[in-house]
Design goal:
Residues 270-346, 352-425 form the ACT domain. It catalyses: L-aspartate + ATP = 4-phospho-L-aspartate + ADP. Keywords: Amino-acid biosynthesis, ATP-binding, Diaminopimelate biosynthesis, Kinase, Lysine biosynthesis, Nucleotide-binding, Transferase. One of its GO terms (molecular function) is aspartate kinase activity. The protein is α/β, with parallel strands linked by helices and 425 residues long. It has a domain at 3-175: Acetylglutamate kinase-like (Carbamate kinase), CATH 3.40.1160.10. The protein is globular. Strands 3-6-2-1-9-11-12-10 form an eight-stranded mixed β-sheet, sandwiched between helices. It has a four-stranded mixed β-sheet with strand order 5-4-7-8. It has helices spanning 16-31, 46-57, 63-87, 119-126, 153-164, 198-206, 214-223, 281-291, 322-331, 333-336, 362-373, 397-407, and strands spanning 3-8, 35-40, 92-95, 102-104, 113-116, 130-134, 137-140, 146-148, 169-174, 195-197, 227-231, 239-242, 247-248, 251-252, 260-264, 267-276, 299-301, 310-318, 340-344, 347-353, 380-384, 387-393.
């Protein structure tokens, strides 16, 4: 039997009982003949509590020191899980991200993994131990400072380790039974997906699906690592995410025409008003945003008014980056030459994802008909070969998701989807 990497989220290790439950599952994998490496998140809401504590001490905590603080959460989880496993009669060793060889760039609070050198992890499992690794963290290549990977960083840690260790599979344990056709907290009749391609999962993750994070899926696709999304609260089979369909009953599981409906209410919209409609203006705007290290999502430019030669450019970005974007643009207003800025954080994005839509011309019409019938007004539209996304009012998002989900026949006839931990992660 080969090596398996398992990742457990914060809701799975939220308390002592949860940690003991996870320990039993880890030991079971070991008893089945696997070498096992486990990646853990901080317990429950520990990370949020540490952030709140930091902000009480300093309204703008230094990135380096905030990273030092936040990595404490995963260290607690890894040590407690190692203790619980040893209590069950098996050897376990815990490792921080830096000890595990997770090498990152130097960007604090949202570092990117640039290499993994898991020599100590390999030696530990070869000696018969279960290796427990603190997720969400690493060490910078330049300066050797402790870094964190941003939200969902433990998923990325797990997949990166799986790739570096040539694991058979990376199992991501959450508090839902797999990937669903929509967020089960919003659509009670959402259906669990048995298999989904990494391409479709990448679009769902980028569009707001919170079961797997975008960077995690991107890493899995690059290194061809199959992911098995399961619940740590049940023994039910989960969802396989891979480049090739899985085999079941001697046959390949085919992917549906539409994989699912994702939504995101964590973004805001910035409109740059009165931009001269000439070459280089858009480049100046987005160079300013890039220099501020802000990632943007959707972009729309209006047709310029013939009388003024001016146009408006709108784009969406994370709400947490909104203030920084406005400040950066205002600072560069003279060089860009726009008239004013508008900021709106009461928006939501709805996305329909499916590889089959590029060969089915009726999908787009059905999508917009469903939104129209639900009384949803559309502000922005963005498309790819396998995705249609629209921006609307935040208050309309839940109803829009349910309407689209039903319109495309995605509702399940069986029991309602269960969110065991209440967070969807």
């Amino acid at each position: 039997m080969g090596l398996v990497v398992q990742k457990y989220g914060g809701s799975s290790v939220a308390d002592a009982e949860g940690i003991k439950r996870v320990a039993k599952r880890v030991v079971e994998a070991k008893q089945n003949g696997h070498q096992v490496v486990v990646v853990v998140s901080a317990m429950g809401d520990t990370t949020d509590e540490l952030i709140d504590l930091a902000e009480q001490v300093s309204p703008m905590p230094a990135g380096r020191e905030l990273d030092m603080l936040l990595t404490a959460g995963e260290r607690i989880s890894m040590a407690l899980l190692a203790m619980a496993i040893k209590n069950l009669g098996h050897n376990a060793q815990s490792f921080t991200g830096s000890q595990a060889g997770v090498i990152t760039d130097s960007v604090h609070n949202k570092a990117r993994i640039i290499d993994v050198t898991p020599g100590r992890i390999r030696a530990s499992v070869d000696d018969g131990n279960i290796a427990i690794v603190a997720g969400f963290q690493g060490v910078s290549q330049q300066g050797k400072n402790i870094t964190t990977l941003g939200r969902g960083g433990s998923d990325t840690t797990a997949v990166a380790l799986a790739a570096a260790l040539d694991a058979e599979v990376c199992e991501i344990y959450t508090d839902v039974d797999g990937v669903f056709t929509a967020d089960p907290r919003v659509v009670k009749k959402a259906r669990k997906i048995d298999w989904i391609s990494t391409g479709d999962m990448l679009e769902l993750a980028a569009s707001g699906s919170k079961v797997l994070l975008h960077r995690c899926v991107e890493y899995a696709r690059r290194y061809n690592i199959p992911i098995h999304v399961r619940s740590s609260f049940s023994g039910l089979p989960g969802t396989w995410v891979s480049s090739e369909p899985i085999q079941r009953g001697g046959k390949k599981v085919e992917q549906a025409l539409i994989s699912g409906v994702a939504h995101d209410t964590s973004e805001a919209k910035v409109t740059v008003v009165g931009v001269p409609d000439k070459p280089g203006e858009a480049a100046s705007i987005f160079r300013t945003i890039a220099d501020a290290e802000i990632n943007i999502d959707m972009v729309v430019q209006n047709v310029s008014a013939a009388s003024t030669g001016l146009t408006d450019i709108s784009f969406t970005l994370p709400k947490t980056e909104g203030r920084k974007a406005i400040d950066a643009l205002e600072k560069n207003k003279g060089a860009i030459g726009f008239e004013s800025l508008r900021y709106d954080d009461q928006i939501g994005k709805i996305s329909l994802v499916g590889a089959g839509m590029k060969t089915n011309p009726g999908v787009t019409a059905d999508f917009f008909t469903a939104l129209s019938d639900a009384g949803v007004n559309i502000e922005l539209i963005s498309t790819s070969e396998i995705r249609i996304s629209v921006v609307t009012r935040k208050d309309d998002v839940d109803g829009a998701v349910r309407a689209v989900h039903t319109a495309f026949g995605l509702d399940s006839d069986s029991d309602e989807a269960v969110v065991y931990g209440g967070t969807g992660r």
